[in-house]
Design goal:
The protein is mainly beta and about 120 residues long. Helices cover about 5% and strands about 45% of the residues. The longest helix is centred in the N-terminal third of the chain and has 7 residues.
Length: about 120
């Protein structure tokens, strides 16, 4: 079973930036792609962004223009660069495989944006 691991969260003020990392075996990143999700406290998990093996990317409307997903070809890592953060971006962020592949949900990484 593949265990993607999210890291890099923290506390920032509105307008600040953070870069999250998702680590998974490169084979699965390239074959399956990686989705980023987030779950605000007391709410349902929502999809944030996706990158596939060919570099195609997609974003939720709420983060488009502020978040950038990318793959590090030299490492088993997918990044989510987040800028112009807003208090409504506060959530537990997690990553998982795409493309119909099965991966375990890890603990995620907390992002807290204060106004």
């Amino acid at each position: 079973q593949v265990h993607p691991v999210a890291s890099g969260g923290g506390s920032v003020q509105a307008g600040g930036s953070l870069r999250l990392s998702c680590t998974a075996p490169r084979f699965f990143i390239n074959r399956c792609g990686i989705h980023w999700y987030r779950q605000p406290a007391g709410k349902q998990r929502e999809w944030v962004s996706y990158v596939n093996g060919g570099g195609y990317t997609s974003y939720a409307d709420s983060v488009k223009g502020r978040f950038t997903i990318s793959k590090d070809k030299a490492r088993d890592t997918v990044y989510l660069q987040m800028v112009s953060l807003k208090p409504e971006d506060t959530a537990m962020y997690s990553c998982n495989l795409g493309g119909g592949c099965l991966g375990d949900w890890g603990q995620g990484t907390q992002v807290t944006v204060s106004s």
